[in-house]
Amino acid sequence: MKNVEVIHYYNEADIEDLERRQAILANHLGKEIISEVAKEECSELIKALTKIWRAEHTTFASKSDEELLADLKEEIADVQSCINNLKLLYNISDDEIYTIRDFGIKRAFGRYNIEDW
Prior knowledge:
The chain contains 3 helices and no strands. By secondary structure, it is mostly helical. The protein has a single domain (12-111), classed as Helix Hairpins (Orthogonal Bundle), CATH 1.10.287. The N and C termini lie far apart (37 Å).
């Protein structure tokens, strides 16, 4: 799915349907397969980021900027799906993740001396 143009904006019912189908998929595949797929998708995200870095910092670019961005979007979506599957299978709530993210962001603000918040 390359060069995706957003032609549909998701409303609450669409998102609920997406989440329902994702839960069915996660439960069908189970922790072992979902964990392996997550590792693979994280690796593909790393590769997409590496290609963008290479295009921005060297004279070698395997694809156009648009293609590289399309690849990045696809890999982010894949990793997000895997994260959602893992959260479902391990019963991890959004609030738990938000709390941990908040702590990490506040720590990074201190680490990098960012005061504007």
